[in-house]
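Hi C.,

You asked whether I'd gotten around to modeling the 135-residue construct. I have! Everything is below, sequence then structure, no commentary in between.
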Amino acid sequence: MISSVVFINQKGEILIYRVFKDDITRAETQLFCSQIVATKENRDNPILFLEGVSYIHVAHKDLILLATTKTNVNVAMALQFLYQLIFICKAYFGGELNEEEVKKNFSLVYEILDEVMDFGCPQIMDPEVLKKFIQ
C-alpha cells in the first residue's frame, strides 16, 4: 500500500503532501527531495530505495509525482497510479498539469487524492466518474 503521495517542483519544494499511512515522516520525504534535486541520475530512475523507504516517482513537465512506501508494494501498480493521477489532473485542469496549476488548484488536488486513494489503495481512477463526485 502507498503511504503518501507528494507533488514536488523542480527546486525540490513540496507542493502537495497527502499521507495515507503514518509510517513515513516528512523528513524522509525531504531526504528524497534533496536526493532528486542534487543529481540528475536519480531523476532518471523511477524507483529509489533509501534508508528503508521506497520512493516511486514520475516526472511531468516541471513536477515530480512521488509515491512512498515502506511495505512490499506492487511497483507497477504504483507507477500506473501516478500516471493515471496525471491524466485525471489534466482532465480537471483543462489539459495542463504544471506547478502553477497545482498551486492554483491545491484544494481540488487534495479532494482528488481523497477520492482516488483509500488508505493507500487506489480506488476510482476514471475522470468521468470522478467528475460526478468532485465539481
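If it helps when you're writing up: The chain is about 45% helix and 25% strand.

Thanks,
B.
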